[in-house]
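Notes taken during the Thursday session

The instructor put the following on the board and asked us to keep it in front of us for the whole hour. The protein is Acetoin utilization protein AcuC. We were told not to look anything up and to reason only from what is written here. First, the residues (393 in total):
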Amino acid sequence: MAKHAGNDQLKKHAVYIYSEDQLGYKFSENHPFNQKRLVLTTDLLRKMNALTNEDVVSPRIATDEELALAHDARYIDIVRKAGQGLVTSSQTESFGIGTDDTPIFPNMHEASARLVGGTLTAVDYVMENKASHALNLGGGLHHGFHGRASGFCVYNDSSVAIKYIQQKYKARVLYIDTDAHHGDGVQWSFYEDPEVCTISIHETGRYLFPGTGNVTERGSGQGYGTSFNLPIDAFTEDESFLDLYMTAFREIAEHFKPDVIISQNGADAHYLDPLTHLYGTMKIYHEIPKLAHQLAHEFCDGKWIAVGGGGYDIWRVVPRAWSLLWMEMNDIPLPQGDLPKEWLDQWQPESPVQLIPTWLDPDNLYEPIPRKEEITEKNKQVLDKALYSIRSH
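Then, after some discussion, the predicted structure tokens were revealed:
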């Protein structure tokens, strides 16, 4: 891909895609997918003076034509009608909406299309050299399929964005997904495409939705060898998680040589997350974006687009994890001491749990894991199997 000419004096370091309109993606008051985490994260960054009005760019709404890059036109039509109350449950059942996971809500199409448009806004800023990096925390809905919603995800912003990059910018894309759930929707969208490489490190599907993401899922046809899965054991801790992530990401990037990196940054591999069984701490969320940042500069002239994803402890985990991601994009070092007192004072009365006042977690977050050595060894075997094809060349 030809590098875009651009005036580095005018180019912003990073842009933060956000508006309160993104909060319209809301299934119900009690649904675990709660966009309040966007408010909490944005407010935390503002209160620590890491985010200014100049950094923030409003997301646009993706057009039907753009959504159709990765979604069936009939599905888009059903989503629109469902959000207007114009369809029956029997009509929506086969499309994955109206379920417990992905219930119908008013203006569902518009809210979902805005999250996709946010990621497309991020893409254009980076690919047109207006910013080196861009962050859309409202995105990362990696379970959406061509003609079906799944796992809290209506439209799949990353799949649409990658197709959009291919069509508009003719670039090779490396997609890295560190959500605790397998990035299935994105993987299957590009399973036969040699120009897109997908990497997913996730809790094994033996106990966790969506049950896919086996190490043997490697792509097919011309795309064989461009799909990488690292299903790690339940109770995996920081050290083993980071060992697999650091090794796999670097070796695969060196092998694939992408033009742009898209990272999905679900924050649900944390010990406190209520929907998963991994034992990560804030240490992994301090380290994960560092390597994405580094590899983007090594291979992609800095081009790095990051999106959000899962994360269901919206009070103690997500705001800290996602703030660390934005701080890495802007070369802001890990702050010493506690989170801003103003932030803690504002949100503690509303939080149903005691907020953690420090950037990193306390040392005694959980009891020691008796199977640590066994888990670490099993994960290492997964890593060796996942990388066998590129190491044997």
